Amino acid sequence: MDADSYARAAGSPEELAEQDRVLGRLAQVTRELMLATMTTEVDHAEVADVTAGLEALTTRLMKQATSGALGIQVAEDGAVRAHGNSVVGHRNPMAPPLQIDRYPDGKALSSFHLGPLYEGPPGLVHGGVCAMVLDQMLGEAAAAGGSPGMTGTLTVRYRRPTPLGDLSAEAWIDHVEGYKTTVQGHLADAEGVTVEAEAVMILPRWAREALDVRPRPTRFE
Amino acid sequence: MDADSYARAAGSPEELAEQDRVLGRLAQVTRELMLATMTTEVDHAEVADVTAGLEALTTRLMKQATSGALGIQVAEDGAVRAHGNSVVGHRNPMAPPLQIDRYPDGKALSSFHLGPLYEGPPGLVHGGVCAMVLDQMLGEAAAAGGSPGMTGTLTVRYRRPTPLGDLSAEAWIDHVEGYKTTVQGHLADAEGVTVEAEAVMILPRWAREALDVRPRPTRFE
Predict the structure, then answer these.
(1) Which residues on chain A are in Cβ contact (under 8 Å) with B206?
(2) pLDDT of residue B174
């Protein structure tokens, strides 16, 4: 990975908005299908028939497709488009996706719903999914405060089980030391905090070098 | 969550095998669709038409479906079926799914492919996905060694970026102290270790109480 990984998004703001609407809808409908795939109890003949239908639709979408990952694009107005991101990606069906409010004093807040797709122990959010969401939130807080970086160390403390359902997450910069930013955060349900996290985010060397010649990147994931 | 969350799987071994085959195939085709959804470049009219087709198939699957999460089932032969699990779930389209080799001395090994769906920074596995996979692997190692538990603390150290592609993971019990099991592990690409992790797994109180009256559970997620 290097600074050139941040490709310029092709299209006017209007074209990009229309693209986001059409492809965002496809991703959302795919999320609903994922849940149906996992919870369906229709008979096996019907499952096989639906499976064949899905294969046909997949073939149609793949007639023209990028061969690699989506990467990160930057629009004309400087907006970062991380549409493939596993946690916030607008086009990534495995992403809930988290919608995050970012504050320039280095805070990030989000409310979201984690359903059956995110299960670990029965009825509970997978501990690894909690870590995944918190990693993203902590990175967002660091970036929002002007100190973006990639995760160096992540420590997650599970205070109590996190039930599947409506949740929220919060993250904030604790302190910045050169290219290292220490961030903290937590995941909560209606009763309060379930999981706490702390991370040290590090600005990669290529980004430090790039800082002299181009605008400081606003985020890395 | 309590011990009763481990429901008995209905069906003979043959019926369960057939169910796994049919529903496993549906999940796999859904994974392929997810990738197509994210990478397609066909025109907007075609995307809209495919989207309508997906909605129709989803409706067919939802005609009869469980309303909640899949939970964990135990088959007649004692085999644990965590088909909804976000990392190893056979029926969960967001799971790669990891196929894990478990050893009774408390080791777990897995080789797998993480494609564009698991992206964070451009071309790289999302740091949170690395943590998610490692949380599962560490839990599997603890369970394999006869000391299952839920994650109490998870510490993840990112040694270098993990490229999307073919990867492997390994986890092992470091030591056991009563109901606390300390496990370690790492994620690696062809060049070697990219991410290291350590966790303390804790056997929940309900499971300790249940130990007296029923077989010790073999895993929790």
Answers:
(1) none
(2) 98
Task: Check if the interface score ipTM surpasses 0.90.
Answer: yes
Tokens representing residue A128 in the block: 């690894």
Contacts of A27 in chain B (CB under 8 A): 37-38
Q: In angstroms, what CA-CA distances link B36 with A63, A139, A203, B24, B117?
A: 9, 28, 32, 19, 10
The rounded distance, in Å, linking the Cα atoms of B27 and B13 is 20
Higher pLDDT, B76 or A173: A173
pLDDT in tens, B67-105: 889 998 888 887 888 999 999 999 999 999 999 999 999
Query: According to the CATH classification, is domain B98-210 in 3.40.980.10?
Result: no
Whether residue A71 lies within 8 A of chain B, CB to CB, comes out as yes
Instruction: Kindly determine whether residue B119 and residue A86, on different chains, have CB atoms separated by under 8 Å.
Output: yes
Our CA angle for A123, A128, A129, nearest 5°, is 65
**What are the DSSP E strand ranges found in A159-214?**
165-177, 180-189, 192-202
Residues of A in contact with B50 (CB under 8 A): 26, 57, 60-61
Q: Is A87 helix (H, G, I), strand (E, B) or coil?
A: coil
A152 SS3 class? strand
A129 in contact with chain B, both atoms CB, cutoff 8 A: yes
> pLDDT tens digit string along B29-51?
999 999 999 999 999 999 999 99
